[in-house]
Amino acid sequence: MTAEEAIASRRSIRAFLPTPVPRADVERLLDIAARAPSGTNMQPWRGYALTGAPLRLLSEALLAAHAAGTPGEAEYRYYPESFFDPYLSRRRKVGWDLYGLLGIARGETARMTAQHGRNYAFFGAPVGLVFTIDRRLEIGSWLDYGFFLGNLTTAARGMGLDTCPQAAFAPRHAIIREHLPLGEEEVVVCGMALGHADPDAIENSLTTDRAPAREFCRFLGWD
């Protein structure tokens, strides 16, 4: 598919088929993603790709902590302390759209918690990715990281694969450190599920809204 088709068809997939993804394909995707621009070509991304037993053992530990209600805290702040519009409205809409597809009603806290817990099983994907950054780097490198992750999700679509970037892993960095050889300088940025979308899973029919360019961009000089 074209780059435009790959970008337009990207969705956050929350149910995967168990179909294996060869290491060569994962490595190729990461090589392509690493063509992302970065300030003075610093390339601040680091990653861990898991499948098989390493993936299963990490998922089991994360799921156990989630089921026990063990709190976790990310080493960086992903969301603002208080949401405000238009961001609050967008956040609420995607949440209720997803829960609506899954038949989860308002107030069904246990079912919401269980759905969130599926993050830690990488939504059944055969490949789990964990990305980190050196804590000594500054915000510019975090911005560069976004280019890398965007490249990865787009390249995956181009190969007929799907992804789900997952901030849910950042608060569980202590458990992740028990299973992966992270250095003390590494901060967990996010996780990412990678594989083939389950076409029969209702949650995968969710298509989120996007504000058109005329709402977030001012066009000057065309008049």
Report on the architecture of this protein.
This protein is of the alpha+beta class. The chain has a domain of 145 residues: NADH Oxidase, CATH 3.40.109.10. Helix content is 41%, strand content 13%. The chain contains 8 helices and 4 strands; from the N terminus they run H-H-E-H-H-H-E-H-E-H-E-H. Strands 1-2-4-3 form a 4-stranded antiparallel sheet. Helix 2 packs across helix 6. It is globular, with a radius of gyration of 18 Å. The model has no long low-confidence stretch (mean pLDDT 97).
Helices and strands in order, then pairings?
Layout: H1 3-9, H2 23-33, E1 46-50, H3 52-68, H4 87-102, H5 109-117, E2 127-134, H6 139-158, E3 162-166, H7 173-179, E4 186-195, H8 213-216
Antiparallel strand pairs: 1-2, 2-4, 3-4
